[in-house]
Amino acid sequence: MTTPTVKLSSGYDMPLVGFGLWKVNNDTCASQVYEAIKAGYRLFDGACDYGNEVECGQGVARAIKEGIVKREELFIVSKLWNSFHDGEQVEPICRKQLADWGVDYFDLYIVHFPISLKYVDPSVRYPPSWQNAEGKIELGKASIQETWTAMESVVDKKLARSIGVSNFNTQLLMDLLRYARIRPATLQIEHHPYLTQTRLVDYAQKEGLALTAYSSFGPLSFLELNLKDAHGTPPLFEHDVVKGIAEKHARTPAQVLLRWATQRNIAVIPKSNSPTRLAQNLQVNDFNLESAEIEAISALDKGLRFNDPVAYGLGIPIF
After folding, report:
1. What Enzyme Commission number does this protein have (predicted)?
2. Which domains does the chain have, with CATH numbers?
3. Is 112 annotated as a binding residue?
4. From CA 118, how far away is CA 28, in angstroms rounded?
5. How many beta carbons lie within 10 A of that of residue 61, not counting itself?
6. pLDDT tens digit string along 304-315?
7. Which of 50, 109, 194, 214 is catalytic?
8. What share of the chain is helix, strand, coil (3-state, %, to 5)?
9. pTM of this prediction?
10. Is 223 helix (H, G, I), strand (E, B) or coil?
11. Are 173 and 119 in contact (CB under 8 A)?
């Protein structure tokens, strides 16, 4: 099965459907990545703070060793954590992450959040978190420009083919684009029918950034974290609008939610432990929603954000 791709400003093609690695348990991660590759997934979206990059690399290595896939057929994504924003720390941590994955380059390396935290040596605490070794949050002094300049050097040294950002708002993108020597190829954001972020999406696409949506199923990824309730909104899988459209197309609600994004050229990175759902999530580009259906789903927008540092009890109101 061939997954449609989107052309990045860097010249590379990025699959529109990938496998998200957030909250994939260490004890099953290698096998899940391996099985996902067997199922046809080629994009894998990771990050050092997920704490499973070594296991991800093991799954990739097994698939390559068995001849299921070649490295150049994969699109491996990782992210720069907040505590490594200082210019001199970007390349070393990128090299560590590459070593953990067991690969020579990332297809895409992303600034995870637009916030600098004080550096914590990986030998002291790794995987990293919002808190330092003493359990406190200490803001760093690195500007986005300092961090981005170091990200550009990662491309120059062929450690990453493309670089991008995540959780940036429109104003931050405007600022970044003023001085970027290498433009960000992608923007990754929380994006689902309860949080459509239309103005941000339109601006980024107008500027040539490819969009990747995380948390495509809304609050589903956050239920066990008890961050906040859904303000009376039903789970998207159970919403009458989504269910009705799914029944009309003989698809699952999950497939409809993913197609709502990919039909607008927004990449998605769902994950699943179920082989059936794993296959279904990849089969979302062989049918089309009507424009009225896309509008009906978009009309569910409530500005309801789940991945917010404030919701984690952190005093960092970046949104």
Report:
1. 1.1.1.307
2. 15-184 (3.20.20.100)
3. yes
4. 32
5. 17
6. 999 999 988 898
7. 50
8. 40, 15, 45
9. 0.96
10. helix
11. no
